[in-house]
Amino acid sequence: MSKKLVRMSKDGPEGKGLKQGGVTTLGKLVDGNPVEASHNYFTDKTGKFMTGVWECAKGTLKLTGYPFDEFCHILKGEVHITDQRGNTEVFKKGDTFTIAKGFKGTWHMPKTVRKFYTIFLEQDGK
């Protein structure tokens, strides 16, 4: 496969599934056991831009400062994102959204969620 053109499957490379990980460190755990699985399909040569697929079991995370700018497309499940003012947006299968670095609030997954992501890290992997 060319590194200039990368096909992404929601089921991981060649449909063989995603690499299982531990409990997500996206934010502080508030509820549940949000064990994650993922596959990063592409990282540019600077290490600042990446794309892939991510799945996480149900749970709730408190976000004290989202670590990066991210574009998300929900493939299954749903996520409820609530900002510091109490405004909640619900994203379900087929929905697409962007979340900015520094966002504060909660990320609640009432059931397992899977998404395509595109991440931009501002500098040196941060």
UniProtKB/TrEMBL annotation:
It comes from the Bacteria. Gene3D superfamilies: Jelly Rolls (2.60.120.10). Residues 45-117 form the (S)-ureidoglycine aminohydrolase cupin domain. CDD domains: cupin_TM1112-like. InterPro entries: RmlC-like_jellyroll, RmlC_Cupin_sf, UGlyAH_Cupin_dom. Residues 1-20 are annotated as: Disordered. Residues 8-17 have a biased composition (Basic and acidic residues). Transmembrane segments: none annotated. This is Cupin domain-containing protein. It comes from Dongia soli. The lineage of its organism: Bacteria, Pseudomonadati, Pseudomonadota, Alphaproteobacteria, Rhodospirillales.
